[in-house]
Amino acid sequence: VGAPLPIQKVPWDWLCCTEIVLPVAGTGIFVAPSPYDLAGQQQRCTAKYGPTAVLDPEWHRRYALEPLRTATNIVFTNGGVDPTRGFAPNASLSETVVAINVAGMGHTFDLFATRDSDPANVVAARAQELAYLRKWLGF
Question: What residues does each domain of the chain span?
Answer without folding.
Answer: 7-49, 61-137
